[in-house]
Amino acid sequence: MDDPRKLFDLTGRVAIVTGSTRGLGRAIAEGFARAGATVVISSRDQDACDAVAREISETTGGVATGLACHVGDWDAVPSFVDDVVSAHDRIDILVNNAGINPEPQSVGTVPLDLWRKIFNVNLEGALRMCQCVAPVMRDNGGGSIVNIGTMESYASTPISVAYGASKAALRHLTVSMANEWAPWKVRVNVLSPGPFATEMITGFEKTYPGTLKILADMTPQKRVADVDEIVGPVLYLASAASSFVTGDDLTVSGGMRK
């Protein structure tokens, strides 16, 4: 066996991380750059993409470029992927991290427009990005797709029913992708975080004081994770370290049960 540390080396790989100008996405992008990948920073705001790409390049010494894309715009995704290929010749890793949970939703009161907005970004955006990226990976010998889910896809809270449902659907879709694209040597997995100190969670804390403590108490570790703690698990799924792993869901939740 070669040095096992090489299994996590992303040198020469090109990685897209959607929703990577803040929170978990930004941490993942910086982690990939430190592992040697060329990273495409993407969100809806080109200025923010450029700023974060510049910061990551300066901090890590790696290569990061910014390219905006609204993943909820079905027709915008193909040209985005084409631009990435034109700039970098290949795509080896895709992390579908972009997601929204803009306001509380309950089963009895969630309006149709909010339901569709959440599914549009969280499910359809990931589907479209995968549809466009997987053939590129196939033509370059394979790749790894990581769809960011949530523990709420197993037990949705009363205030985020649409969010939890969209991520549960994403988990099912991931298995279908993994089965269909295995002959292409494209692996597709879900990573389901528990409570992390992202802008989304801290936003809920402002609206519902005590949210962070409630979430922390749901974990055996009795804490909310720092965003940097997502990097190791995602790096595992994106790299050769998980070469025999596809169609799976890696929960990173401090011990929360499904």
Automatic annotation (TrEMBL):
* Gene3D superfamilies documented for this protein: NAD(P)-binding Rossmann-like Domain (3.40.50.720)
Record keyword Phosphoprotein present: no
The UniProt keywords, alphabetically, are: Oxidoreductase
Tell me which family the UniProt entry assigns to this protein: Belongs to the short-chain dehydrogenases/reductases (SDR) family.
Q: What is this protein called?
A: Short-chain dehydrogenase
The answer to keyword Oxidoreductase applying to this record is yes
Q: Which InterPro entries match?
A: NAD(P)-bd_dom_sf, SDR_fam
